[in-house]
Amino acid sequence: MSWVTKTLNSTLGRKLLMALTGLFLILFLVVHLAGNLQLLIPDNGESFNIYAETMANNPFIRVVSIGNFAFILIHIIYAAVLSRQNKSARPVNYTTSKASTNSTWSSRNMGILGTVILIFLIIHLRGFWYEFKFGEMPTAEYGGMIYKDGFKIVSEAYSNILYVVIYVVSMGFLAFHLSHGFASAFQTLGLNHAKYSPLIQKIGTGFSILIPALFALIPIVMYIQSL
């Protein structure tokens, strides 16, 4: 067995992969949000559709997208493995009072939070990514060029109050997941320090509130506009 395999099969190696993939996915959230916020530009979807078409035809972005799916899969698998290891290491559960004292609610329920986010991700990918890639897309014309009208697909989805509620609630779960995962990733990478850890914690808290809130804002605004 090579040192790489030994490392990846060790608890430390698994935590390291969780941290690295988690940080990559955090970066992806920022990029994805920047693109999605163009849905709120009042130009009937022109900015978003041109952006989506440009990204879809960029070879670099295609490679990154494949890597993103791979990292999501790795993150999920190793999360499940580590969760099972932790339960095996602690066959007797802590009492509620002791658990509450030694850890946050988010850290104790990362498995539940991650599962809800995974379910949402499947629904989200099926409703948008799959339709964009394999569905019969409507088209729109800008400056004599024909583009896939992804804006119309998103607008129709966000005119459904049920989907909006699912989306907003899921962003709440994402916020709790990020509130623990952000600082935890830095700690796993050994970047915790008495001087800098409080700052990292504050940045993580701000990030975990701001990013999901902005994601949630998009369907809320588009639903109101559809009324």
Automatic annotation (TrEMBL):
It comes from the Bacteria. This is Succinate dehydrogenase cytochrome b subunit. InterPro entries: Cytochrome_b-558, SQR/QFR_C/D. The keyword Ribonucleoprotein does not apply. The chain crosses the membrane at residues 16-40, 60-81, 110-129, 161-182, 203-224. SUPFAM superfamilies: Fumarate reductase respiratory complex transmembrane subunits. Keywords: Membrane, Transmembrane, Transmembrane helix. One of its GO terms (cellular component) is membrane.
